[in-house]
Amino acid sequence: MPKENPLRDLLGQLNQEFSLSEEFKTRVGRLIDRLDGLQLPQEQVETLMAKVRDTYERQALVEACREESHKSFDRIQSAITAYSNALNNIDRRLRQAETTLENLSSANSLSQRAREEKAVVLFDKEKARALAAFASMNSKNSRIN
């Protein structure tokens, strides 16, 4: 009949009570296996049992916090991605607006230039008429004199 091992019994109970990673359970199991051949006084066994229980409780908190940290990280990453997408959309719209403004400005410049050229042409026609009238008067005056 195998010798009763209270630490091994506690380990089985804790493994059912706590849903922890297999890596942690294996490591604790190996430590208890190393203690298996030692003849420990009852008070040391009780102290070790309390420490093993405490370690399991702390590990449960650590793994729960780790899971929450991963969830928080995922939420932060999603928020950053959404923010980045929003900035990209804003940038795209700003570029479209700049292009539209440049096109309007260019069209406005062309129509302004066309108006200026038309005004210059009208001015030149008026100036030419005035010069022709003046020349005509001049030539009439020179014939009179």
- The beta-strand count equals 0
Residue runs with pLDDT of under 50 for 5 or more positions: none
Radius of gyration: 47 Å
Share of helical residues:
over 70%
Strand content: under 5%
What is the helix/strand order? HHH
What value does the average pLDDT take? 83
Largest sheet: none
How many domains?
Answer: 1
Cα shape: rod-shaped
Cα distance spanning the termini: 155 Å
Structural class: mainly alpha
Q: What is the tally of helical segments?
A: 3
Can you walk me through this structure?
The protein is mainly α. It has one domain. Helices cover 89% and strands 0% of the residues. It starts with 5 loop residues before the first helix and ends with a helix.
Keywords:
single chain; 145 residues; mainly alpha; 3 helices; 0% strand
Give the topology, please.
Layout: H1 6-17, H2 22-35, H3 42-144
Helix pairs in contact: 1-2, 1-3
